């Protein structure tokens, strides 16, 4: 064995010595040709006396491409390092791609599975090649034709040596059927694949393909004989993040326009194959009927009302700088997508848009409703204004959520969403309640039922002229929605085995329309119109594996289908009050603060919430201060004075937030109602801080500012205040957040929520800087900061949500 290893090393060293001169000559020749071409181009430009203006656009694009490729290359190399490294090394190195079991304790480590994938990965190449050739390539050809790109074809397809890595697995034990097993897999693929393709006369390739997402595997039904499971379903709950690097002549596609078009097409095809409701289904037993595995099983409907947004970022450039935006919203659950209309020239759009999603899987922290906000750009790519996300399971649990959501990945902005969960019923009596509800909403596009359709096969279809068998596919439509099966080549007895779901406005008046067409000629082979009201007379509102006679076809032509009807029903959920959420939503937080403020009185002066400071005085000393304050008064003063006295006494001092003895100490007060301007007479600010460990998210809520001072030299100059936040030491646009500007107000109320994605390890090294500024200062002074608070996050426990008043201090000069 040792002799063989030494022989292999010797061969490798010999090959390196032989190839080194060749590579050196090749590199020298390439460099020489490029430099000669550059000098020749510049000389020719001057010789032809062309304007320098024609030279600037390609130079700018080249510089942009080089800089963009550097950051992309770094991300790809980091991802590949994370896949190849051990999980221990990934965690200690603090790479971005941390395993899911680090964040979520219910995910299990599966290093044993990664070792198995490493062994079987070389044999997966043939399977993946067939999937790409048969399914992905035709879909890409069709999608690229919309961009006037023709002739796309894959050539070489090698997966490389780096297999996917499973960062954790969760097996669901509750809320699942006894005949199925559901598990989630956190998958990262950052492989060194070698894929070549041609697009007309352009030949290129794809390298360093990356994919990260939460995949779900459903094993069903359970059997009493080998293989014990009838089959499995594989799909992603939401669109996975996809990235890749183009090489060869196709590298020109990395420029804007072509870049977005090609990447969008590839993401769409991945979504159309393996993102819910689309699934990869593999039967494992011939004894299991196809409809058991392939017929959709909806769990409910999520009705969403996109009401409005406020305080969005300004992306358009006006005559005097930043103008406004032309916002629209895109709402996603898995591969399902809806888009609102675009409202021009505003940062406070009102859409009043309704949409409905069919939900097949509600469980899982990664199964979310994601609302993206964009600024419509008529000349280029649309700018992102942020996004809001909420778990589907949380909506199902609460029944209805009506809330303002803070936009992620944005300096500021909120969106107002109303989300309602509708369960499924087989009781015909529930139809009238559903119809009444849609009438009260006064929205004609809302639904009252779901039709589940499974197209099994067709028999005895008529042949074309000359006894040629047709290339047939089936189209099914209900209302405005149309679905189609795959095309079966040269078959009069096609077998499709595909399932679809349709939202039905009113099952008493709606119908299912079926057309079977020939793909080559476009001619109609047979049709069928089925009144959905007939299903309401069937047992359990379903008709399984029934042969239906086709119209406009031979008498013996039939299509075999299964149909099931589910009525929509709103049920008030039974919420356990004692059940604690790991994250409070904004509306609950507001109600909690209002209750705290209403409960503050003289009789409750001694019951003070515990401070979030890690170093804090004992509760006994706090109570003694309160009791001594009350007992020392010979005559009981008015309630307002007592409240003020207690407030002034119950002060807890923390250490200096910047570890500097020259800077005043940070003061926190535990009373929500205040009439004081603070020790520095600059006013006070009320904040809520909380940190979600599973989601690695710091949430800051700016409630209100009280008693801002007026300028001594001009008391009539009332400020226009706003609050600006930074997560230091990163003072740049990525960590900057900003509230709205309230005109002429010394006691502004904002109630705006901001979020930062930061790991728990980095949290202790951060300082939250909150500055109260005024927009009027630019008329009279270069400094618009009225007061400031700095909170050292290492000194407080933000895993327990708390709300406090903070005294505004003079600005800390930036280093």
TrEMBL record:
Keywords assigned by UniProt, alphabetized: Calcium, Lipid transport, Lipid-binding, Membrane, Metal-binding, Repeat, Transmembrane, Transmembrane helix, Transport
GO biological process per UniProt: endoplasmic reticulum-plasma membrane tethering; lipid transport
Main subcellular localisation: membrane
Ranges for region Disordered: 598-620
A GO MF term: phosphatidylethanolamine binding
Highest rank taxon of the organism: Eukaryota
Chain intervals with Polar residues compositional bias: 598-610
PROSITE patterns with a match to the protein in the record: C2, SMP
Gene Ontology cellular component annotations, sorted alphabetically: endoplasmic reticulum membrane
SMART domains listed in its UniProt record: C2
InterPro entries membership: C2_dom, C2_domain_sf, C2C_KIAA1228, Ext_Synaptotagmin_C2B, Extended_Synaptotagmin, SMP_LBD, Synaptotagmin_SMP
Occurrences of domain C2 (ranges): 276-405, 427-549, 681-806
Annotated localization: Membrane
The protein, known as: Extended synaptotagmin-2
């Amino acid at each position: 064995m040792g002799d063989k290893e030494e022989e292999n090393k010797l061969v490798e060293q010999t090959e390196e010595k032989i190839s080194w001169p060749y590579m050196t000559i090749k590199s020298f020749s390439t460099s020489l040709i490029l430099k000669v071409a550059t000098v020749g181009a510049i000389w020719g430009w001057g010789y032809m006396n062309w304007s320098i203006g024609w030279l600037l656009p390609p130079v700018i694009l080249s510089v942009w491409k080089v800089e963009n490729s550097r950051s992309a290359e770094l991300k790809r190399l980091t991802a590949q390092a994370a896949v190849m490294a051990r999980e221990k090394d990934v965690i200690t190195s603090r790479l971005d791609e941390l395993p899911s079991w680090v964040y979520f304790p219910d995910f299990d480590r599966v290093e044993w599975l990664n070792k198995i994938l490493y062994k079987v990965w070389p044999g997966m190449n043939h399977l993946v090649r067939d999937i790409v050739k048969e399914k992905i390539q035709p879909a890409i050809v069709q999608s690229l034709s919309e961009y006037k790109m023709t002739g796309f074809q894959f050539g070489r397809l090698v997966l490389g040596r780096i297999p996917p890595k499973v960062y954790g697995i969760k097996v669901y034990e509750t809320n699942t059927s006894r005949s199925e097993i559901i598990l989630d897999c956190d998958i990262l693929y950052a492989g060194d694949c070698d894929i070549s393709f041609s697009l007309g006369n352009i030949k290129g390739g794809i390298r360093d393909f990356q994919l990260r997402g939460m995949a779900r595997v459903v094993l069903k039904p359970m059997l009493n004989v080998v293989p014990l499971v009838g089959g499995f379903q594989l799909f992603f709950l939401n669109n996975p993040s996809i990235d890749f690097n183009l090489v060869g002549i196709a590298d020109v596609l990395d420029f804007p326009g072509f870049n977005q078009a090609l990447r969008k097409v590839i993401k769409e095809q991945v979504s159309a194959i393996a993102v819910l409701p689309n699934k990869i289904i593999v039967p494992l037993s011939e004894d299991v009927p196809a409809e058991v595995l392939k017929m959709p099983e909806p769990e409910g409907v999520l009705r969403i009302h996109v009401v409005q947004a406020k305080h969005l970022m300004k992306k358009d450039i006006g005559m005097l700088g930043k103008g406004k935006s032309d916002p629209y919203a895109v709402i996603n659950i898995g591969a399902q997508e809806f888009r609102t209309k675009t409202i021009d020239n505003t940062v406070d759009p009102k859409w009043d848009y309704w949409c409905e999603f069919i939900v097949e899987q509600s469980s899982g922290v990664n199964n979310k409703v994601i609302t993206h906000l964009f600024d419509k750009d008529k000349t280029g790519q649309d700018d992102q204004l942020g996004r809001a996300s909420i778990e589907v399971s949380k909506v199902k649990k609460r029944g209805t959520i009506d809330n303002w959501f803070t936009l992620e990945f944005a300096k500021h902005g909120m969106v107002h969403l109303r989300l309602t969960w509708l369960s499924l019923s087989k009781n015909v009596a529930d139809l009238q309640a559903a119809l009444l509800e849609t009438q009260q909403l006064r929205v004609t596009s809302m639904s009252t039922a779901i039709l589940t359709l499974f197209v099994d096969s067709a028999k005895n279809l008529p042949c074309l002229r000359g006894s040629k068998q047709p290339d047939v596919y089936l189209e099914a439509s209900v209302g405005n929605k149309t679905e189609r099966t795959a095309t079966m080549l040269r078959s009069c007895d096609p077998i499709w085995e595909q399932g679809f779901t349709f939202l039905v406005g009113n099952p008493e008046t709606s119908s299912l329309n079926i057309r079977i067409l020939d793909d080559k000629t476009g001619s109609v082979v047979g049709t069928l119109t089925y009144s959905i009201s007939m299903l309401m007379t069937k047992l359990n509102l379903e008709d399984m594996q029934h042969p239906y006679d086709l119209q406009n076809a031979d008498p013996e032509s039939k299509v075999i289908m299964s149909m099931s009807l589910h009525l929509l029903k709103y049920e008030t959920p039974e919420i356990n009050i004692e059940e604690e959420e790991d994250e409070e939503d904004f509306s609950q937080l507001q109600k909690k603060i209002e209750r705290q403020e209403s409960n503050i009185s003289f009789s409750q002066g001694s019951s003070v919430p515990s401070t979030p400071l890690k170093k804090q005085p004992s509760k006994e000393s706090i109570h003694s201060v309160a009791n001594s304050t009350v007992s020392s008064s010979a005559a009981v003063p008015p309630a307002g004075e007592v409240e003020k006295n207690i407030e002034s006494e119950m002060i807890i001092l923390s250490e200096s937030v910047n570890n500097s003895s020259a800077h005043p100490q940070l003061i926190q007060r535990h009373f929500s109602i205040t009439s004081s301007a603070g020790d520095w007479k600059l006013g006070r600010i009320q904040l809520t801080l909380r940190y979600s460990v599973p989601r690695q998210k710091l949430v800051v809520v700016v409630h209100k500012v009280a008693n801002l001072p007026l300028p001594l030299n001009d008391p009539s100059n009332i400020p226009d205040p706003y609050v600006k936040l930074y997560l230091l030491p990163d003072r740049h646009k990525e960590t900057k957040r900003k509230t709205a500007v309230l005109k002429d107000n010394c006691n502004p109320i904002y109630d705006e929520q901001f979020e930062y994605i930061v790991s728990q390890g980095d949290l202790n090294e951060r300082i939250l800087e909150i500055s109260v500024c005024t927009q009027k200062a630019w008329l009279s002074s270069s400094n618009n900061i009225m007061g400031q608070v700095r909170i050292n996050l290492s000194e407080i426990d933000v895993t327990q949500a708390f709300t406090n008043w903070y005294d505004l201090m003079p600005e800390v000069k930036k280093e």
